[in-house]
Structures are given as structure tokens and as C-alpha cells.
Amino acid sequence: MARSRFALPLAGTLLLGLAASSLAALDQPKAAPRPRQAPKAAPAAPVKVTSVEGITEYRLANGLRVLLFPDQSKPNITVNITYLVGSRMEHYGETGMAHLLEHMVFKGTDRHPDVPKVLSGLGARFNGTTWYDRTNYFVTFPASAENLEKALDLEADRMVNSHVWRKDLDTEMTVVRNEFESGENDPVSVTMDRTIAAAYDWHNYGKSTIGARSDIENVDISHLQAFYHTYYQPDNAVLLVSGKIEEAATLAQVNRLFGPLPRPARVIQKTYTLDPTQDGERAVTIRRVGDIQLAMALYHICAGSHPDFAALEVLSQVLADTPSGRLHKALVDTKKATAVFPFPMGTKEPGFLILGTQVPKDLNLEEAKAILLQTCEHGAASAVTAEETERAKQQVLKGIDLVLNEHDRLGVALSEYIAQGDWRLFFLQRDRVQAVTAADVQRVYETYLKPTNRTLGLFVPTAAIDRTTVPATPDVDALVKDYKGRAAAAAGEAFEASPANIDSRTLRFTTPAGLKVAMVPKKTRGETVSASLTLHYGELNALMDRGAVPELLAPMLSRGTRTLTRQQIKDAFDQLKAQVSYASTADNLRVTLTTTRANLPAALKLVAGVLREPSFPADEFGKLVDEHVAEIEEQRSEPNFLAQNLLTAHLAPYPKGHPRHVDTVDESVADLKAATLEAVKGFYQAFLGASAGELAVVGDLDAEGTRKLVTELLGDWRSPSAFVRIPHPYTAVPSENRALETPDKANAFLMAGVNLRIQDTDPDYPALLLANYMLGGGGLKSRLADRIRQKEGLSYGVGSFLQVGSWEPSGLFGAYAIFAPQNVAKVETALREELALALKAGFSDEELRTAKGAWLQSQKVSLSQDREVAGRLAAQAYLGRTMAFQARLQDQVAALSAADVLAALRKHLDPAALSLVKAGDFSKAAQKNP
Q1: Which CATH class is domain 282-480?
Q2: pLDDT for 70-114, tens place per residue?
Q3: 457 phi and psi, to 5 degrees?
Q4: CB 653 within 8 Å of CB 639
Q5: For the segment 542-591, what is each residue's pLDDT rounded down to a tens digit?
Q6: What distance in Å separates the CA atoms of residue 625 and residue 633, rounded to the nearest whole number?
Q7: pLDDT above 80 for 239
Q8: Which range scores top for mean pLDDT: 22-31, 204-213, 226-235?
Q9: For the CA atoms of the chain, what is the radius of gyration?
């Protein structure tokens, strides 16, 4: 049962945060910028504050806090700046201001008029996010002195000189409003927002960070500007630079660029509003079009810095983990619901814990709600065990350890603890979790999870007053004053992540069964190692009419072996600090694994056991089918899914029963319900083996030991039948332009696509790749983003994509946009006009030069990520290639001229053949705008 054959890049550099607000000058640019004041003397030397586990804090004379975290194991650098401002600081009528400002600082300064261009030129992965207590901006780029200078100079400049102009606000407001509308489409997001709002009387945590629509549309420009000048200052920010840096040189560089910024004279007023102790159950009910039911219970809890929070985080796993959690056992195992989830919110001031469940429409929501509340509020009658506590702690600590081993992730993660009061709380929280006992968990269970502290259902008066008084926020300075932390994680080697260097380090062999293996041994931070395994199976005739069976294969393998239950498998991976995922399609099964050097042998043995000794437990099969049906049903009215699904089916018109057929929602549900456990077992026995497949392992590993172990585990596992790749030839399809009605959805979605007759060995491929990058594949800095998002403010997420086959000349060019339904004609017109302009006039030499540099830099970032390199090596082994193919491609892109790109675009892209599918509530929009 096939899904869409392309995935949309709707996250990352295109999506700029959780919520935002901006500051503009009045109507003219002259009112907004603040010229940088040149110092009369060189900035004073930074003062060292403390050092914990490889991270050192310094303080500049102007108040800027600087964290430096050298890590030579990856050839990249992450710059993350956290401003201590979020939606908690917003005033009445100004909700969403912090988030809107996050968007506006991407609009430029006098010296950096095009911020996306600067970041794209670094080949960077970047983003900005806003939450209750903080706003942060991060950028990861290939390590070099020049790149670091550009990144730091940009952040120092836009800290105080950002253009916050009326003209930019007019377009960005509509982009943020489109983001707001996108969130309004999601039942989980809407229900969570309303539940949180009902839980608070006065505190700003009760207001969604994205803000009220009316506030977004009517934000006062002078208030927005004042907000910027107040909070975007060096004494209200923490700068972290991590990665391949030299600490002394980087500190001097930071002081040179940020030190001249003057310490402001203003005093930031502390927030002091706190909610009273809740004195009874609260409820909120949302009635909207949708395909799932939800029940959530919110409980007020302490601030993230309070000692109780560690036990509450463990408790959330005890209750809502899958599959060990009490809620999972009470709701999912009994088929009363299809999923449960926890959401513990660690905030600067007292926050909240949400525990929820998802219930299909054909099940009883009231019954599920009753079980949810009974389980959550039954602490006194059902003591938490030591086994439950240790399992939950392992899960929490595993996540912490994995973050610690990747400097780019750690830099961003620290923003949350900086917002709570100090970055060292990250390590203190880890230590607290490590020390949590079952008695601690039991105590917070009984203290916080009680009916009078809950927001969920109807208000019910009660004579018995039983309230929870949330403790005050601790003095964080006192908490961390003498904190020393543990020994810093093992440092990795300085590895140049170039195609040639990766190839020179790669060891390759083939097992007796036929599995192709590639290994890249190298020292990494925290001794991490990543693996990617693909097993191919079957041929076209044998794979016809299999329905949902191949899709269900992988998740069933991980639900039990001849010697281990599903829970034991999960516990074992947690103990090994291993992240593992399984997925299967009609003709292949994929496994990804990340762990550490010491745990790699045991993790590989466990993966092999899952693959070779599955027990196919009958009690798990029904739950698995229900989960998948619920996931499909959830998409039944979603514009994004429906537009993508219909366009994919149109461009890939395979008949029902063919492995590449794209199912409708009804077909998917029918196939899932028709699948049987015996069919899945039979499919496994007929096809699974390691005769046709690839394994790539990258990171801190013992090469000879790993070679012997892989041969021992998989070397004799021969496939029962031969694998013959299913062709995917080019198909010419007629152009279509269709509109789907999705009632009561505030956001609409457009997908456009056309099949291409091209292969990645075609001489035109590099030029077509770069043309797509400039049209819409380059994130914020692209033709479509410049026009539809930046200039006209019509879309929060817009872009293009290119997929090109490696086996035969068969490819796809596509574009997408999310937008308000009333803007559908404008978005379609802009898309067509930009494509026509590119085909008519091509791209300028400057545009080409910038795009080439950005794309080449982005490849460096990709090759510095071991997980991605493992995936690439496995794919190359399947194609009979090495990294030399990537090196040639980079050289070819670097040599392109504007004429080359235009010629390739004209040769392969026919706009008349473009098909479009739009999904949204267009009827309602038409009624509002007749």
C-alpha cells in the first residue's frame, strides 16, 4: 500500500518557529534602525564565569553571556542566540508579539539587507523559534573562520539594528496569520491551546505563543518597535557557539563583534502575575470538523527549575510511555483508544503537565476519558514500582545522553534551560532524574494529579476541598552557584567530511549471503555511531495484490521475538542508549540505528534478533492495525494530505494492486482492515533475508570486530526468493487543475507537479538541480519564497522540489504552498508567473553564484552528519556507486553557467504540462468574498 512518493520539506529553514512577533518603525525605514554606536575604546576583556562538562561561560562588559563548547568531531559550527523574551512578556492586545518579532528580524538591517541570502550563502541549516519564556535563533554551517565571522557579524548586527519597518510588517503579518491558520487545522493543536487557556485565569502561559488572530492583524507598530528595543539587547541574551572552534580565538572574535554594543540604560520589568491555586475541575469542549477524538487532562505543576520537576518528568513516562505506560495498557492495549501521549512543560514559572489520548470516531470518548482520569488520578491507590521508575528514567536519560553527544542539538536544547534561569539546569536536571526514586514519583503523583488541579471536563462542585499549591520558583542562582557537573564527554577527531575523505576512510565488504556493507570508522563525540540497513525483496508479480501487508511487516517485527516481548525489546534498546526505527514498503525494509561504540555490538545483535526471530504476537497485531487506521482516518479531511495524495496518484497512475499504486483514504483503511496476521507471517517467510541489501555503519566503531559480527549475524541469512527491482519508467500524464473542498479548515494547500524524463546521470541533471534550488528548493532565499512569502505575504510555507531517478530517466518537479483559502487565485498566479519568468529570462550571474555557494555549503553540512552519511553510503552501495559520484556532482554544479541552467530548464520543464491540486474551504472563502 503505497504512500506519496515524495515528502515535502515543510520544516526546517522554511518554517521559522513556534510563534513570533516583530517591531517596525513607522511608515518610513528611517524611523527603525538604530545605528551601532562606535566605542571610544576597545571592549573590556570578557570575564570567565564557570565551566561545566566542556561548556564555558563568559560575560562581556555589556552584559552578554557567552557559552563556548568546542567539539572537533564534526566539521561544522552552530551559533545559537537566546533572548530572554517570549509570550510571557506580552501585554493585553499584544499577544503573538514575540513571535512576530522573530519573523521580522529576518527582514534585514542596513548592512545585511537580505538575511536569508546571508544564511543560505553559508549553506546553513537555520531557524528561529519562540516559546513562553524565550526566543532563539540558531544556524549550523560548515566550520571555517570566514563562515563564523559572517554568522556572528549577522547576529550582532540584527540584535540592535534590525529593520522593523511598516512595509515589512504589512507582508509578514499575513505570513504569520497563515501560520496561525495552519495551526487551526490541527485538532491536537487546537484542543491543546483551548485546554491550556481554560487552565489559566491570568498568567500568559494560558495564551498561545502564536497569539490571537486579531492581535496579529492589528499589532501596533510603535508598540512592536518598543518591544524590540527593550528585549533585543546584549544584557538580555545568551550566545552559544559550539562545534569545531578554537575557544580563545572565538571568544576574541565574539568580543570584537558584540563587545561594542552598548549596555542599555533601560531596566526590564520583571513579570509578577501568577495564577491562584486552582479550586475545582475545569472543562472545555471543542466541536469542529475532524476525524479523531481527543481527551486531555492538564495539571498545574511546579517550575522547571524546581526539584519536583525531575520526578514529574519520570511520572509522565510511567503513565504515558508506549508500550509500558499505564495509560497505554489501560487504553491502547484494551482497544479503547489508539494512542496516548505526555507533555510535561518545564517553564520559568509554574507550568503544566498534559496527559492525553487519541480515540477513533467509532469508539466511546466518554469511556476513554473516564479511564484516562481514573488512571491519572489513582496514584494513592496504585503505588509506582521501582521497575516502572527505572524504565522511565532510562528513557529520559537516554534522550539527554543523545543530545549531549551532538553539539548542534545541545546548543538549541540549552535555550529551554537558559529560559528557566540558567543553562546549567540542563545538567542539574539530568542529575536529578538520575537520583529520582519510586517514592519521589509516588509523592508527585499524589500531590499534583488530583481532580481539583485538573482541566478537562465539566465543572463539578465538590464539598471536599483538596487543592494543590504549586511551590514557588526556586532561586536558580543559588541552585547552580557551586554546581560542577561531571567529566566532559569524550571528544572526537577533527574529521574532514568531504566525499574524497569519506571514500578514503570507507571499508567495504560483502557477506556470504550477498549483503553489501560499508563502514566508516572515526572518532566521534560521545563515541556515537550510526547505522542504516536496507533489505530488498520480491519481484513485481510476486508483490502484486499484497494490500497493507508489507506496510505492517516492519512494525510487527519489533513487537516481539522468540525470546523477548515488545517491552523487553524497548527496554533493552533504552539500556543500550540506542535509537532504532523500522519501516517497510512493498519491496524493501529499512532499519536505522544510533548508539555508542561500547553498545554497538549488543545493539546489532538485538536488531538481528528482531529481524530473524520475530514471534508475531497476535495480541499486538490488532492494536497495530487500529493504530494505522487511526493515523489514516486523521488525514481524511486534511488539505495537505489530500492534495498531495491526489496529485501523487495522478502523476503515478498505477492500477490497484500494483506495489506502486497510491491508495485513497478509503482504500488504505480497507486494506488495513483486510490484512491478517497469517498474511504478514507468510510475507515474511516468502521474502525476508539479507541476500539483497546494504548496511552502512558510520562513527566510533571497531572495524574488524564489526565486520566479523555482521558476518556472524547476517552472513548466512539468505533470501527465500530472488529480488528483482520494480521499474519506475517515465509516464506522460495529462495536465489537470483540481480543487478539493475541505470544510471548516482555516488553511488551504496547493500542490503542483509534472513528470520529467531525466536520470541523475544525465548531463542536464546538475543544472536542473540548481534551477530547482533557485526556484524554491533553497528555503527562504528562492524565487517562490521571495515572491509569495516575502513580498506578498501569502504563504507561511512555500517552495519547490526535484526528484530524479537513478536507474532510468524518470523524475518529478513539484511545488507547494500553504495559504488562506481566499488567496488561492493569487498563489496560483504567482507560482505560474515565477515559473514563466524563469523560463523566459533565466537567472542572473549573481543569483547563480549565490545559489551555487549555498548549495555547496549545504552539502558540507549534510556530509558532517553521520546519520545522513550512513544513509547515503547505503544508497550508493545499492546503485554500485561511491562518494566519487557526489564529488563529481559538486564539481559539475560549481562549473555551471547561467546559460547552462536556463537551457536545462527549458529542455525539461514544460509549464503547460504542470498539474495542480488545491484543497481548502474555498466555498466558505467565496461566501466571505463574493
Answers
A1: alpha beta
A2: 999 889 999 999 999 999 988 888 888 889 889 989 999 999 999
A3: -105, -150
A4: no
A5: 999 999 999 999 999 999 999 999 999 999 999 999 999 999 999 999 99
A6: 12
A7: yes
A8: 226-235
A9: 28
Helices marked H in 592-723 — which ranges? Answer: 600-612, 618-634, 639-651, 665-674, 677-687, 703-714
**Which CATH number applies to 12-258: 3.30.830.10, 3.40.50.300, 1.10.3720.10, 3.40.50.2300?**
3.30.830.10
Separation between Cα atoms, residue 834 and residue 784, nearest integer Å: 7
User: pLDDT, tens digit, for every residue of 607-626?
Assistant: 999 999 999 999 999 999 99
| Fold classification of 737-928 (topology level) | Cytochrome Bc1 Complex; Chain A, domain 1 (3.30.830)
Structure-block grid coordinates of residue 157: 548586527
Supply angle C-alpha 531, 534, 535, rounded to 5: 140
Those residues whose C-beta lies under 8 Å from the C-beta of residue 529, and which sit 6 or more positions away, are 594, 595, 596, 597, 600, 697, 698, 699, 700, 701, 866
DSSP state of 28: S
User: b/e string for 169-180 if b means 16 or more Cβ within 10 A?
Assistant: beebbbbbbbbb
Q: Do domains 12-258 and 499-714 have the same CATH topology?
A: yes
- State pLDDT tens for residues 370-418: 999 999 998 888 899 999 999 999 999 999 988 888 877 887 789 999 9
Cell of 543: 508483490
Residue with the three cell numbers 492583524 = 217
Q: What was the pLDDT predicted at 929?
A: 65
Contact 311, 435 (CB under 8 A): no
% pLDDT > 90, the chain: 73
Cα maximum dimension of the chain: 81
Residue type, 221: I
Topology of domain 499-714 in CATH is Cytochrome Bc1 Complex; Chain A, domain 1 (3.30.830)
3-class SS shares of the chain: helix, strand, coil, % to 5: 45, 15, 35
Model's pTM, two decimal places? 0.85
- Contact by Cβ (8 Å): 684, 480: no
Distance, in Å, from the CA atom of 209 to the CA atom of 198, rounded to the nearest integer, reads 15
- Encode pLDDT of 458-503 as tens digits: 322 345 555 567 787 788 788 888 888 888 777 788 889 899 999 9
Distance CA 144, CA 245 (A): 9
What cell does 84 get? 530572554
Q: What is the separation, in whole angstroms, between the first and last Cα of the chain?
A: 42
Cβ distance 590 to 695 under 8 Å? Answer: no
The residue extents of the domains of the chain are 12-258, 282-480, 499-714, 737-928
Contact residues for 584 (Cβ-Cβ < 8 A; gap 6+): 550, 551, 552, 553, 554, 555, 590
Q: How many CB atoms lie within 10 A of CB 694?
A: 22
Per-residue model confidence as pLDDT tens digits over 749-789: 999 999 999 999 999 999 999 999 999 998 888 999 999 99
Q: Where do runs of H (alpha helix) occur along 64-133?
A: 97-104, 115-121
> Grid coordinates standing for 296?
486531555
